[in-house]
Amino acid sequence: MSKSEGPSKCTWTPNTTLPTVHSTKKNEKPLIMDSILQNIGNTPLVRINNISKSEGLECELLAKCEFFNAGGSVKDRIGYRMIVDAEESGRIKKGDTLIEPTSGNTGIGLALTAALKGYKMIITLPEKMSQEKVDVLKALGAEIIRTPTEAAFDAPESHIGVAKKLNAEIQNSHILDQYGNPSNPLAHYDGTAEEIIAQCEGRLDMVVCTAGTGGTITGIARKIKEKLPHVQIVGVDPKGSILAVPESLNASNITSYKIEGIGYDFIPDVLERPLVDQWIKTEDKESFIMARRLIKEEGLLCGGSSGSAMVGAIQAAKTLGAGKRCVVLLADSIRNYMSKHLNDDWMVDNGFADPKYVNTKTQEEE
Ligand code: PMP
Questions:
Q1: Interface confidence: ipTM more than 0.95
Q2: Which of 29, 48, 56, 68 is the most buried (most CB within 10 A)?
């Protein structure tokens, strides 16, 4: 995006009352792009037909397909925005090293922009995250450091702890910090939310979104509450995470989960939970099965958290009658999970087999 085409700026004051700033600038795709960075944002909004029908929804359900972004996820938006804002403020300069703790997609978004703009990139990534993400990150030139999944966020060996240690050791290095950086929610306040409002021509009743850092849901919710205050914002959080409100929703025997990129054991600064009207908790099996249904029944090649979002959307949208409209955000692509839930054996081995959606037969039986 050249600067003139980029999103207009507003100031961001996290965890305060709603700002009165509005961004109206359109960010249209040019016929010929200067670089692939211009293919971040302006993602399609697609009607969900077959799943809506079989689930008996009366309202219209639309999917914001973030897997069409250049690097394959919603986090390309913040990777680009955090780097551009840091450059504009003079915080970083070409040749510096960027270090980021991430579940992978922010890393890919950052590494993509960093590769084109000439920054070194180090990613600290919990072991849980897929090999596919690691391979893409490496191909983009990033250095990867894996960290134990079970480490608490404030433990020195966690992905956050290791990033901080490296930052102290490496000269001219910076953690742009998606958990606290206002450019994270702003990318969605100026971009994703404006696009949804424009694509719906303002006719919209509910938005459903998962949360990791919470940047996506916070940025979308802020803008939509300003422009269309009647719209309900629904957050989706996996069982085993503590992001949902009221706190009682988070009580669960489940302590870990396999869906990547959503949920946390702390509340990130950029997540403004008062903007969310309702939270829905989801489990792995229903999410992975729904992610496969999105592929099989709608042709949407999205990832696991998209399955969680859709489980939440179906539940929440059942309260909407005919003529109402719900938008659900599908955060990333199946490309990240080719060896995971896309694979029948992986589904069976992890106890997620369901003969209706997973081929449980061995090759000899077939
Ligand atoms: N889904 C996936 C697959 C992700 O990688 C992320 C980002 N961690 C999210 C959803 C949630 O996005 P956010 O960090 O903006 O809450």
A1: yes
A2: 48
